[in-house]
Design a protein that fits this description.
four-stranded antiparallel sheet, 11 strands, transcription regulation (chains A, B), about 240 residues, disordered C terminus, alpha+beta, globular, homodimer, Env_Response_Regulators (chains A, B), 7 helices, Jelly Rolls, cNMP-bd_dom (chains A, B), Arc Repressor Mutant, subunit A, DNA-binding, disordered N terminus
DNA sequence: CGCGTTGTTGAACGACGTCAAACGTTGTGG
DNA sequence: CCACAACGTTTGACGTCGTTCAACAACGCG
């Protein structure tokens, strides 16, 4: 009686994997816990690399800064996700990792991890699978960014968020976005107005519903409707449920 | 008097790093060489994961397929780059890796690599840095995709290609694209017509020049002009050199 | 030589961005 | 408790960048 939606190509219980990983880390190496508040950054671009951070609670975004001031949200991170992997190559973090809410991260020294891996090879497996999964996830982001129209990208964003919660064993019919329309738009490569309009259209088509209090809480009657909307956009753009 | 452009946050000689890595692999574990021809795939999505592939020569693209038939070029790979890292997480490759020209890859078994790493820890460093660099590269792709107008994206693509060649010690003033306009467009999230027009405009502004023979060979008078064009687009869109 | 593939260019359309106005929410200080 | 400001969101009108559709040109190949 697992509560978890069974997504293809994923272990049946992601909850289990995350719990196991956290336990494994805790057992095999020193861990530094750190509480962060909304807006705090776990690390910043250019800072000397030393540690990886595993999200224990809260919601985080990864922001990539270009030299000329353009900035881009390149990833969202939930419990069990790792932060700081981009720093390994150059010994300096390449992004900012920013908390979108109060949360806790576990800092582990990278060198300590490598040393511990000699005695506990499973650590290596975990690290590699994490990085590999991250690569695949970004490939999927690029696919969405490049092939989906704005409305479908927003729908895809909502489904990604609910999937992430579902995999962590939380209720999936109701989500509270920790991001402003501007942040969502940045992440999805569009303006905040487009995000707002897309959400309004999704609500009009009853794919989502706004709760009475606040437009940041979103009720999702059935996830399948979201998925259908995304796919519908690729076949016959805008033919789905809309006014 | 080094021929290599000195990009920030990168070792001075990438040529050296690549050569060292190839040598290290060759010395410490069994390698299976494999010749591929244009259009051949090194591996395909869904195929059981077992090996990583290091590009020894040629040009490769990574293609991500969605269930509903959308497809997206998510990366370009040159000598020294690794293919197959996306397969580690699920034990199945998540993309297609396709040769864009005749080339050679070195196949190494992932399990053999992990075992060899016990005696040669440098192998681990190489693997981790490679994956980390790959993550950063994709963050940069997303930044370009989301924040740059079409013309600048094409300019960025050309600069990425020339940088890759320059880092490998090849001439940088002249490049031969191994991709059709459609492939470039797919990679950059736009149509082939937009790519063609962007190239024409860049040529009109003398940022690039077409060689007399074929529109696939592109001459680049000075890379700085490309860079300036990209940055110009972010500050005052379309204010650069154009008709 | 004829034909398929690839690339270029033009014209019309449409999706999305820009600009602007109005409203709701939250927090702060009088 | 209210007034006010700062911020976030929604919605409309309008402009534009990029797509779509189409015709044509340049190769490469049988």
């Amino acid at each position: 009686m697992t509560e978890v939606t069974n997504t293809p190509n994923r272990p049946v219980s992601v909850v289990g994997r995350i719990a196991d990983t956290l336990q494994l880390l805790q057992d095999s190496m020193p861990i530094q816990r750190r509480i962060v508040r909304a807006g705090d950054s776990v690390y910043q671009v250019g800072q000397a690399f030393g540690s990886l951070y595993i999200v224990n609670s809260g919601y985080f975004k990864m922001v990539n800064l270009s030299g000329e001031g353009r900035e881009q949200v390149v990833g969202l991170y939930f419990k069990g996700d790792w932060l700081g992997l981009d720093g390994i190559a150059t010994s300096h973090y390449a992004c900012d990792a920013v908390a979108m809410d109060t949360g806790e991260v576990w800092a582990i020294r990278y060198d300590a991890l490598i040393q511990a891996a000699v005695r506990t090879p499973a650590l290596l497996t975990v690290l590699h699978e994490t990085m590999s999964r991250e690569l695949t996830r970004e490939h999927d982001s690029m696919l969405s960014l490049c092939t989906l129209p704005a409305d479908a990208r927003v729908a895809g964003f909502l489904r990604y968020w609910t999937d992430a919660l579902a995999q962590r064993g939380q209720r999936t019919d109701q989500i509270t976005l920790r991001m402003t329309r501007a942040e969502i738009g940045n992440y999805l490569g569009m303006t905040l107005e487009s995000v707002s309009r897309a959400l309004s259209r999704l609500a009009r088509g009853d794919v989502i519903r706004f709760t009475e209090k606040g437009r940041r809480d979103i009720h999702i009657p059935q996830v399948e409707a979201l998925t259908a909307f995304i796919q519908g956009a690729t076949v016959a753009p805008m033919a789905g449920a809309l006014h």
